Amino acid sequence: MGTTIVKWGIAGYGDIVTRRVLPALHALGEQPAALWGRDPHRAARTAERHGVARSGADVDVLLTGVDAVYIATPVVRHVPLARAVLDAGLPVLIEKPLAGGLDTGGALDTAGRCAGVAYYRRLAPAVRRLREELDGWTPDLVDVHFRCAFAPGPDDPMRWRTDPALSGGGVLADAGSHRIDLLLHLFGRPYELTARLGDRFPRGAERRAELTLNWRSGLRAHCLVEWGSGPPVDRFRLTGGERTLTLAPLDAGRIDAPPHPPLLLPPPANPHQPLLADFAAAVAAGREPVCPVAEGRLVDDVIVAAERSDAAGGRPVRTGG
In this protein, which residues make up the domain named GFO/IDH/MocA-like oxidoreductase (predicted)? Predict the structure, then answer.
């Protein structure tokens, strides 16, 4: 058996931390005990606003007096910080993607320790029901389409996402990683993909990524993820054998399966709450969290393969599945 998590160290002070992680911890009755960030003044302001007792820019603040650590920094710092946490003998939960196109996730030794990646959609009631529907049914095609506006100005705190050296990629590593994870969670690792990435920010992150993934079962998935103008889209549709199941929007908790009535399975208001509850339970029980690091690495593998395919003019690239 593991130990019960009571006190958390938090690395980062951005939107995910302030809107999702800290409120979820408070709702679960757990204690955010320390907050780390490169800017000690911003860390102190965030800590004070959210009732976190300690803060600072020294990584030791993150590793002392806590039972586990949540890492929600720019992607380039995910693996170095996670390594420090694991070396300190602490469980660690890392924001997605693990490393994206930086491809550094293989450097983490998680043997015998609880370490996960925050692919929280695995816990959504509609996704769990989707897995049940796939028992005995393999679709022929999955269609994934995501689009939202994202055009940060020079002073926008999210501007780092446009620099692949910091973010591990563009829209594919950001919003796309969640949808890739769902494909891997539902169907396992594809054996081959083709990809085209384009419409890049000045620092190189793509605004548009189009992928086709192939599985040895014959399943094919077409994924289009984009930051751009036009109405928002978030569709996840499975077809095959005269059946169609659609989640649109993906996070609405509604499964359309004509001719049957829609199935309504609303998600929690804060999806990080069940994610953090699952991780605490995993530590206590000595089991793996809902998305262990090893499975988070597989998403990175797809992102890296997509970049290789694009660099080769969209030629097929094997992914190892």
Answer: 141-244
